């Protein structure tokens, strides 16, 4: 089962754990499960998720139904005096299909936004919906602060001399002037435009970007040294510089300032890394904006 746990899936599992009480990958037929805790993969056997509470098997196995019918499913399951919300979704692996189980105790009230859908809803869309609810910024579709706070320590923990980690902070230059001159709708367009550029400019399998807040963004470049990161950020900066926002009869140019910091040790604290990169961003602004300072 281990080969199913790609880097992307591990990222999702870690983010889901912020919301759900039980997150695991299941082989419903063989009754085997994989859990990912504290950076370790744990294999185990159990009848079903209800066995976590009362050691009994459900009469209607939602995981088995997902595996058989290749559909993403959701149900509310009563287990003793508990009420569980259960999502199951198919994961296609190189050695066969597995099931992702996301389980939340909602005895005291449902805390996850409900997403209504038709019966024809594609199975992968519910996973995208969950990602949106849990990890994504709704304006830009970049990752949000929850994801960033969860993943940065994980990225730092993997960092070493052979696998440096580069982090960049950027913000849109003169953003307040854009809002004051053209209105907040244009400000939102500028934020969305930069978000789209970031999504189209990073390596999908390793890099990620998040909206830090307002007009500020973070870019995470694992296994990337300072020089390579600088070149990548320069390409992004130039793309933003060439971008024109059209609003009514106006053409609005935007630019962004970048601060870059690269580390090669897992002994750095997140707050210290933020201080380094924020200082570089401050230097970029002081030196005239629309530049990358490394």
UniProtKB/TrEMBL annotation:
Keywords: Nucleotidyltransferase, Transferase. It is an enzyme of class 2 (transferase). It comes from the Bacteria. Its EC number is 2.7.7.65. Pfam families: GGDEF. GO terms for molecular function: diguanylate cyclase activity. Residues 163-294 form the GGDEF domain. SUPFAM superfamilies: Nucleotide cyclase (SSF55073). CDD domains: GGDEF. This is GGDEF domain-containing protein. It comes from Defluviitalea saccharophila.
